[in-house]
Design goal:
Length: 519
Amino acid sequence: MREFIVEADGGSRGNPGPAGYGAVVSDAATGETLRETAEYLGVATNNVAEYRGLVAGLRAARELDPAAAVHVRMDSKLVIEQMSGRWKIKHPDMKPLAAEAARVFPPGRVTYEWIPRDRNKHADRLANEAMDAGARGGQWSEAESTAELEAAAGPRTVAAPVPGSGATAGTAASLVTGGTAEAAVTGETAEAAVTGETAEAAVTGGTAEAAVTGGTAASPVTGETAASPVTGETAAAPSTAETAEAPVTGGTAEAAATAERHEAEGPDASAETPTAGTPTSGAPAPVPEARAEADTRAAGTVAAPGWAPADMGAPATFVLLRHGETPLTPQKRFSGSGGTDPALSAAGREQAERAAALLARRGTIEAVVSSPLARTRETAGIVAARLGLDVSVEDGLRETDFGAWEGLTFAEVRERHPDDLDAWLASPDAEPTGGGESFAATAARIAAARDKLLAAYAGRTVLLVTHVTPIKTLVRLALGAPPESLFRMELSAASLSVVAYYADGNASVRLLNDTSHLR
């Protein structure tokens, strides 16, 4: 019986992000390379890319000889342990891929072995060639591949390996921009040691990421890494460019005094203040032998009230984009779901294009969902066209109905309906004049839409194109803040905010009112 060695690898520059895999089939007796295969996958996670590499390698081996015995070698501890039957496969994205791999050869003809990353250079180079080709807008070409020569020559010189890992320079980008913790622990995923799932949740425990990388930035709010889900980069949150006004400090009178200064599409009654930068950790990296133990220990907790048991699943990440300007925006008129439903202005379309360009560069968005109103559908269409995605409409993401106040400025409402306005500013249960929607009713609707979307997009990164009140409400609910906090957040047109939701019910606000792409 002929025997083959299959070596496979996969990577994602963003996790999820632009991803690719590589696989090599060689003769077990001579070591001769018989087949190379690689593919750019578009947006996917590291683990999906690794499984896709395994499937491709097995299929290539079967094409050479369907009666052969195959020995698979990979640096993914997760894939090796799951395919060997020692770890349970829980993630819904992994189950069909594992089943597909198991069907290529009859049971008993495939064996599995974990190897360090530095012994998987050939497949690693192929995966990076595939991702590089995708970044150029093409696909990997076997005729142009130099992966085997590079693997034989040693590490690439284009970038340094990640300290303490077996990762070559070709995979360093993936690790820096959100790759799994597994590579930094030479193939052993932090959470695989606990549950056999992806390493995503190990980051949420606050200390896990520092233990793995030796000092990535941590958020003072959530204990999570400072890598932005939108940008995939570790960086201080950008400050806003607008002139800051005095923030509201409490009380109906102050809210009323400042509400007039902002567009009244939603409760924009606070000043825009610069976002504080995120501190970085100066802790030295643990020695490699201690990393797996420290990472596993850190994965046992999650940044949550009471330090609840760890949620080991990848979060659903909502990237919240407020629509671009309409003709009513600079006039600061109430513009909800019960008015004229204005379209974007020329300035608003330009803002949407800028947001689209940023999101396309980052490559993390997997789906686009919009409010049903014209300004959001137009904004979403511009972004989705740039990303090559379709737009789904969710009615629950529509703006509050401001009743008789639609189209009026704050001053005009104060003049015509002073008592109703005071009641509205004082209580989330108060409705605008003429049977509009209270903030309490809006919050209930948005919470229901949130839960529906979380069920539909578990573990994925989704762009929600919506309005001032829905975005502020999602942030408020994630923070557990009181209703009056709606008057203490600024939200600019075409701004980006991010909230991540974990399966155990915890949420993390990762970004608020980012307008850096508009400057």
